[in-house]
Write a structure and sequence with these properties.
FAD-depend_C, 878 residues, five-stranded parallel beta sheet, 19 helices, alpha+beta, FAD/NAD(P)-binding domain, eight-stranded mixed beta sheet, Alpha-Beta Plaits, FAD-binding_protein, disordered C terminus, FAD/NAD-bd_sf
């Protein structure tokens, strides 16, 4: 329900005798969304809303001077037979024809190619498209165009913005690489008077008495970019990596693959560049491809040797062969800045005194007994360990550093012949792939399924329902590799080289798991997820018989729960063994995989076949924990001077998002140490977001918030939920003050499975929108689901907490952003609450889909929370 914004800013008076029947009938907008495919009505339709939004955007997008700046042209379609191919990134004749068509210029050949540049190119071969096409986005340099071809001036004068097709950028500011950004800041800063200067209205530099000493633990993307920022800003940085540089690491991986010798500290997981070095090197991200932060990361990679094609490709990737020389160049640059890099060095402990991190205790990775440890003092400790640094988690727990168990996903990796995937996706165009050397990209896929009550029907199991199953880390033209860090465990992943020329395609098919799954196996506490991972990694190792042999099963045998010995070939080089993988996981996870496999075969006919081979086990899709940190300073909420960043800390998922988080953390640490002051967004653009929701204030005395999901970009973050709860009510030490959740129908959505709210309830209502959230493709298939978001009981004057900034909302009709990591709600909900387990699933990148960032996410379940407000008073902070 959407309520009329308040005209008062006073804290609403709470009445204990309130229920839904007391709600007045509001004349406000009724926001109910559901899908045409469900047979339910949709009013107002999404298309009508988009048209209204487009008119609003166009009304405020009048171009003051059409002959300055840049015009950006979207969705320029060139048929495959007229395009030179995926590797051609210049202006072709066919593309020039499309540009002339948009400009309404009569003779395309008279247009100067130098005035145009391709900024995005992707391949569209969907079945519903009449013919496969390359889709281009092109920038037009107006001044250069007119100077080279004066006849175009009249045509530019008639050009008008069209949402999603034509856009004008008056003051286009290209974001450079991170090195040039920081150096431009420093050069501008020193021009000021008395040691101060203004940059973009706010930035200034302050003189510091000495270089602060900072240690960065971990040489993955987040650690490298945090180090780069801090070193460029003038800090004395030491980078510690337990693994080896890429040259030595490559030899260690070769010894593993050829002679089965596993180096515990230098392998597919540990070493320079992190786990992503020996992987597919994907640079696809869901945190905003065109944001300043992501562009800065991408251009920095180009600076260190990545091909410029990654700036244009619709699905950019590097591949291991390109990452190795890139990391070598990155290392040399850091060393030129004076960074001390210690490879083969393990952090055994963090020196904490009076609640402040003051250094680290280290030893050589080869020193198994840690007999020659050394203590090193620093002003700040940046913890950028990856998701496999389990010993670091245990060490943090011994210091009472707050760790929160985080939902993740586990499953199996399925492998097909690449030619089969090409045929499924491209049909007769499969021959155009030519093992990565043809005109079209090597075919990949992305599938997702949400299992609800309707899917199970006769065999309904509440443990199976309300789970997501989806493909993860799809590696076209790749191979299956070992990512175990212990000989007694079996864990796998996928990797590929830049050309993606392998005969196989593989992807993980994983199912979301929550704290309820961990507790079912008697694993409790912050590291319950870690023990859950170990349970099945050890079981998979035993199924394979040891010696790093992977247990496998054909997809058909897995679906039918059969034991078969005839196996198709596998790309895994250490050997495979037939095993009953349908007995590996608990029944509800196996059933979720089986249910989803059947659906994936309908979406991709031929997906289930005799060549489809399942490998076990994939458990390290993301970090099993999160280390709470301050939203602005990135500092741990438990220990001062400790800055957890990246995927290992629970704030990223993939190379780009980890690099962005490390970069932002570098600026945050520099700001804490007086190396940098001001507004980061004015330098890099909007910071990485973590699942924002819009809210409107209510003029009802209860102060209900209507929450609508607007954006869905990344994973869980911080303790904003707890802070906001405490902000309104103080610290709720007694969890019994909050009674269980109850589901109620949400208008036409009608997807609830629980009962109605308790009759005769006299408690105030804490309303929230959320639930099983689905986005649809035009062909009617649900492509992805996300866990619910829950809103908080609000007041008309409140502090809205969101990543990287805090906004004071004290005016009427004011809108803001809130982020709610739902694990934090467990602190306030009694264990016996009859709550759907998905309520505690946070927003994670792996459950997302790029289309969800375009407003297709809609809540389908509404929640009702009864709150006993007796003896509760508004906290002074509110």
């Amino acid at each position: 329900m959407a309520l009329i914004p308040s005209s008062s800013c006073a804290f609403p008076k709470i009445h204990t005798a309130f229920c839904f029947s007391n709600l007045p009938s509001y004349q406000g907008r009724l926001r109910i969304f559901c899908s045409k495919r469900t047979g339910k009505q949709r009013y107002p339709s999404e298309k009508k809303q988009l048209r209204t939004k487009h008119k609003h955007l166009l009304s405020g997008s009048k171009v003051t001077n059409k002959f300055e700046g840049t015009w950006r042209l979207f969705k320029l379609l060139v048929p495959l037979d007229q395009d030179p191919g995926k590797d051609f990134l210049d202006i072709s004749d066919a593309l020039l024809q499309q540009i002339a068509k948009v400009l309404k210029f009569p003779v395309a050949s008279l247009l100067p190619r130098e005035a145009f540049s391709v900024v995005r190119k992707s391949f569209d071969a969907r079945k519903r498209v009449k013919e496969p096409k390359f889709v281009h986005t092109v920038d037009v340099d107006v001044e250069r165009l007119i100077s080279l071809q004066p006849r175009t001036r009249d045509f530019i004068s008639r050009l008008e913005p069209k949402v999603g097709l034509v856009e004008h950028m008056q003051d286009r500011k290209d974001c450079g690489d991170l090195i040039s950004i920081v150096r431009d800041y420093k050069e501008t800063a020193v021009k000021g008077e008395n040691g101060h200067s203004i940059l973009s209205g706010e930035l200034h530099q302050t003189k510091v008495s000495r270089k602060p000493k900072i240690v960065v633990v971990g040489g993955g993307p987040s650690g490298l970019f945090a180090t780069l920022v801090l070193a460029e800003l003038g800090a004395d940085v030491t980078l510690i990596e337990r693994g080896q540089p890429v040259e030595k690491r490559g030899r260690d991986i070769g010894a593993l693959v050829v002679r089965r010798i596993l180096e515990l500290e230098s392998n597919f997981c540990f070493g320079e560049g992190g786990a992503g070095t020996w992987s597919d090197g994907k640079l696809v991200t869901r945190i905003g491809r065109n944001t300043g932060s992501v562009l800065a990361i991408m251009r920095t990679l180009v600076h260190f040797g990545a091909p410029e094609q990654i700036l244009i490709d619709g699905k950019p990737h590097l591949g291991t062969d390109r990452l190795v020389p890139l990391l070598r160049n990155f290392r040399r640059h850091l060393q030129d800045l004076g960074v001390t890099i210690k490879f083969g060095t393990r952090v055994d402990d963090i020196v904490i005194k009076d609640g402040h991190a003051q250094g680290v205790t280290v030893s050589e990775s080869a020193d198994k007994l840690r007999l020659r440890s050394q203590q090193m003092e620093y002003d700040a400790v940046v913890l950028a360990v990856g998701h496999s640094a389990r010993d670091i988690y245990q060490m943090l727990l011994s210091h009472n550093v707050e760790l929160i168990p985080k939902d993740f996903a586990v499953g199996l990796r399925i492998e097909h012949p690449q030619e089969l995937i090409n045929s499924i996706q491209y049909s007769e165009l499969a021959s155009e792939v030519a093992r990565g050397r043809g005109k079209v990209p090597v075919a990949d896929y992305k599938v997702a399924n949400y299992i609800d009550k309707e899917d199970l029907r006769e065999s309904y199991d509440p443990m199976v329902a309300n789970r997501s199953c989806y493909s993860f880390c799809m590696c076209p033209g790749g191979q299956v590799v070992l990512t175990s860090t212990d000989p007694s465990e079996m864990c796998i992943n996928g990797m590929s080289f830049s050309r993606r020329a392998s005969r196989w395609a593989n992807a993980a098919l994983v199912v979301t798991v929550t704290m309820k799954d961990f507790e079912a196996l008697n694993y409790y506490g912050p590291l319950a997820g870690v023990e859950f991972q170990r349970e099945f990694e050890r079981k998979a190792a035993m199924m394979g018989g040891g010696n790093f042999i992977v247990p496998v099963q054909t997809a058909t045998d897995f679906l039918n729960k059969l034991s078969g010995s005839s196996l198709p070939p596998s790309s895994y080089r250490l050997g495979v063994k037939a095993a009953n993988l349908h007995q590996l996981f608990p029944d509800h996870i196996t059933e979720a995989l089986q249910n989803s496999l059947a659906k994936f075969d309908k979406e991709l006919p031929g997906f289930i076949c005799k060549e489809a081979l399942l490998h076990g086990v994939e458990t390290r899709t993301s970090s099993p924990i999160q280390i709470p940190r301050d939203i602005l300073s990135y500092e741990s909420t438990s220990v001062k001077g400790l800055y957890p960043v990246g995927e290992g800390a629970g704030y990223a998922g993939g190379i780009v998002s980890a690099a962005v988080d490390g970069m932002h953390a570098g600026f945050a640490v520099a700001k804490q140490l007086s190396l940098f002051h001001g507004d980061l967004e004015s330098v890099l653009g909007k910071a990485q977001s973590f699942g924002f929701v819009n809210f409107l204030h209510s003029d009802h005395e209860l102060g209900t918030i209507h929450v609508q999901m607007e954006d869905f970009q990344s994973c869980n973050c911080g303790n904003a939920m707890a802070k906001t709860l405490e902000g309104y009510f103080g610290n709720l030490e007694n969890p019994e003050q909050i009674s269980p959740f109850h589901k109620i129908p949400c208008g036409a959505a009608g997807r609830t499975t629980g009962g109605a709210p308790p009759s005769g309830s006299n408690s105030p209502v804490l309303s929230a929108a959320g639930g099983a959230v689905r986005s649809y493709r035009r062909d009617g298939r649900a492509i992805s689901y996300a866990a619910p978001v829950c809103s908080l009981f609000s007041v008309t004057q409140c502090v809205a907490t969101c990543p990287h900034h805090v906004k004071q909302c004290s005016k009427t009709n004011n809108e803001g952003n809130m982020h709610f990591p739902s694990q934090m709600l467990q602190k306030y909900v009694p264990a016996q609450a009859n709550t759907d387990p998905d309520m505690y699933c946070g927003f994670t990148a792996r459950q997302a889909h790029p289309e969800q960032a375009h407003g297709l996410l809609r809540p389908l379940i509404c929640w009702r929370l009864s709150l006993c407000t007796q003896n509760l008073q508004p906290h002074p902070r509110a």
